[in-house]
Amino acid sequence: MTGSDEPAEPEEDQKFDKGIEFLLSCLGMSVGLGNLWRFPTRAYENGGSVFLIPYLICALLFGLPGVYLEFALGQYQGKSPPFVYRRIMPVLEGFGWVAALLMATVGVYFMLIISWISVYLFNVVIGNSGKWGRCDNKWNDAATCFNIPAQELCSGAHPAGWNTSDTPIQKLIYMNGSCHDKEDYENITLVSASAQYFQNFIVRPSTSLTDFNSINWPVFIAMIIGWVITVLSIWRGMKFVGKLSYVTVGLPYIIVTILFVRGVTLEGAGDGLRFFFAGSDFSALWNYNTWTAALTQMCFSLSIGFGGLMNIASYNRRKHNCYRDAIYLIIGDTAMSLIGGAAVFSTLGFLARKRGVDISEVVASGPDLAFSAYPDAMNQMPVPWLWNFLFFVMLWLLGISSEFVMVELVCSCLRDRFPEFCERRIMVVGGVSAILFVFGIVLTTDAGIYWFELFDEYGAGLGAVVSATSMCVIIAYLYGLEHFKFDLNLMLGAGGGCCSIFLGHNSPYFRVNWKWISPVFGVILIVLSCWKSYPHHNDPVAYPVLFDILGWTLAITPFTMIPLCAFLAYRNFKKHDIPTRGLFLVQKQHPSYQRISSDWSPERKRIGLRLPCHEPGDQVAVSLSTLHSVNKNSDLESI
């Protein structure tokens, strides 16, 4: 008997060797394709710089408190999300499974993006990178294909047959092998060669969501390879993933900085940067779509509400300063979004200057924003194949590092729920990956791009906001902020000084935020996010009614785990003749059970004595004398 309220440390083999590996693993999950593709896309769709204002406000009011809360919950209890919630109250276990299913959903369509990148990378390696910047390939539509480098051929030239020099040079455009007056193409939507390469060679889309004709075999093979690499990496454990993050996270920061420097030196880059950072159309701030897009993008980018951060933190040492890392994560993620966004928009400014049009007319929004704007920039650099190779290696590393953590979360939840799986790690990782691969096969068809948009529109953002908001409500109103304050003190110390009061890990700001600001903010934006226009993109042919029916089904399905898990917990308590009220009490496996239960009423204490002494899934009832060796985090020595 120790007489201490401080919970025991996690087992040594479950912890990261170094604190930096934890931070890099979190950056590997949060900093990824969402920063270089989704963030510029959302900014592009919401007026450029105007989008930055709600995004940064959401990061301060919702992002930092949410990341810190996930870190603290996972680190203190050393368990996956379902068991973190179950220890607070058994009826809440379903919220953890909601997070796991949301993460699995993202993992399905994230692998499609990784597969696209892999096809690009393969074509760079075999020497085909120069082709996607030209308009003379079989996949090009010569009537609308815009060749960026070829515009230099019109420098100092006039269209054939012109005998006057009154026409300004900048009015000329190179199309179909010769220079033409730009006004000849005023009513024609021109598409860059790189955008046509992405759409017509990589994606190869059909006409609609239900128009299935063939498998996109290059993407299909790339997806298989991606899942095999994921299985082999996760099989080695989270510590191995943490060590991989030195490369998968560090290298992309270096490469994107180089691309940013190159981008801002291109002609017309200033126009793009002004559109991104200094846009003057502030009317978008009064559009609720801008705010909902900012919050969902912030949750998506930081991975709040998906449970992944909570799961990674469970591998931390108990005394690790997770508050400091929460701040570093916000800074690192926002920096990557801003640098990546600046690189994209500087390139868009360059493309707009070359074409003589407004930036908003350069390229359609969506995934092809990154898959066409960046390659166009790469082809303007010396030794373009090298820059294309580095760029797509960077994208691949960012994508696969996120995928590792997504799949590991699901596997960790299953191992906690079924302890016998701990000895069959490869079976669990392989089984989960195989199931996600099967769901992802539809994405490799010629209708896959429409299913990708379905997953992107309904499968992640809204669910993550609901999950993150629920987490704040559970801690603030069901577990209790005073109890959580004590937990933080046990991990990080009581703190002191005037700076700690306002900026420290136990600042009243966080308690006010978790109790009022984040829940209210989240609920408002949840309601606004549910207000959608139909049909999607105003295109009833490509996106029929079935698109929205399946989308809402995908969004709602994870939340069915809440009543299902509550019912299973109720049935389990009934089976062992434990009072139903025990479903709403902190469980014995919780590290702070001894302290919290000491303040209970006599009736609650009598119920507490009958609470189970082991987690669901344990095959053998564990006695109090041996419970400490089974549950690495519980402080039951003082009972």
Automatic annotation (TrEMBL):
How is this protein situated with respect to the membrane?
Answer: Multi-pass membrane protein
The protein's location, in the record's own words, is:
Membrane
This protein's record includes keyword Nuclease: no
Entry's Gene Ontology cellular component terms: neuron projection; plasma membrane
Its transmembrane ranges are 20-39, 51-73, 94-122, 215-235, 244-264, 291-314, 326-352, 385-414, 426-452, 458-479, 516-534, 546-570
Disulfide partners:
C135-C145
**What Pfam families does the entry give?**
SNF
Q: Which UniProt keywords apply?
A: Disulfide bond, Membrane, Metal-binding, Sodium, Symport, Transmembrane, Transmembrane helix, Transport
GO MF terms here are: gamma-aminobutyric acid:sodium:chloride symporter activity; metal ion binding
Record keywords: Disulfide bond included? yes
Amino acids binding Na(+): G28, V31, N35, S301, L398, S402
Protein name as annotated: Uncharacterized protein
Natural source organism: Caenorhabditis remanei (Caenorhabditis vulgaris)
